[in-house]
Amino acid sequence: MKAIALATLKEAVRKKTFAVMTLVSALYLALWALLLNFFKGSIPADDMSMGFASVILAQMGLQFSSMILCLLTIMLSSGSIASELETGMVHSIISRPLRRFEYVLGKFLGLLSLTLAYAAAVYAILMLIGSLFFLNSITSISATQFFKGLALYVLVPAVILCPTIYGSVSLRAVPNGLLMIFLYILGNIGGMVEMIGRLIGSDPVESSGIFLSLVSPFHTIFSSAERTLLPSSGIVGEMMSGANGLSGSGKPASAWMFLYIAVYAVGFLTLAIRKFSRKDIN
């Protein structure tokens, strides 16, 4: 299993997809730094204006970098097993003294290690850039907030990897990738629907948003990271409470929701192992 994990990690890093998405990430971080430099000299020195703009900029940095990470995860993992099934390469691997569940877990662990390391690096660079440009919403973060935010930030692509692996066992690479992108977008829609339901006082609309968030809980995790890192009290917190992030969100996730997310991730990984164990690969 360790050999499969290392081979999967090396293969993913060598892919053109990884190189292109790394370039996209670097360009985005450079653009974010440029915006911080521009706004640093353009925003009036009023506490409320500076605070509000600082939170918006931090939200933008976190939100779109998380999207890039999730897209990278989907693109790298959607064909991780499917491509080897299509080409028949899986036969030479499974013919060795390797059980099928070890093959799936090896693929998962290799991609997971890359996903966690990449997400942690992007997060650290975001925090560093924010600190270098003295972004208030970043420089005011405590060590506890930093590490809790890091754990939640990297959890988003880690969880999305689980259903993508299941899809890679069940579907071809392209349909699986498209389906997972739709599922990821669905979570963002769920957060917006739940927010709208709360604003207009409609329980059916809010319940619909909650249902979508259960089907696609990725945005719920990100919203928790955002709530951990950004202010939720004071004047700025009150101004942001109606927006709930750039893409909307519902109520703060409870411990029960995180338990559900754990079951969701482990459940999809278990289904992937079970399906592959019963799959006819001849």
Q: How would you describe this protein?
A:
With 282 residues, the chain is mainly α. It is built from 13 helices and no strands. It has helices at residues 2-14, 16-40, 47-77, 82-87, 89-94, 100-132, 136-139, 143-170, 173-200, 203-215, 218-229, 234-241, 255-278. It is globular and about 65 Å long.
Shape designation: globular
Total strands: the figure is 0
Q: What's the total helix number? A: 13
Most strands sheet: none
Low-pLDDT segments, ≥5 res: 233-239
SSE blueprint:
Layout: H1 2-14, H2 16-40, H3 47-77, H4 82-87, H5 89-94, H6 100-132, H7 136-139, H8 143-170, H9 173-200, H10 203-215, H11 218-229, H12 234-241, H13 255-278
Structural features:
mainly alpha; 282 residues; 13 helices; globular
Tell me briefly what this model is:
With 282 residues, the protein is mostly helical.
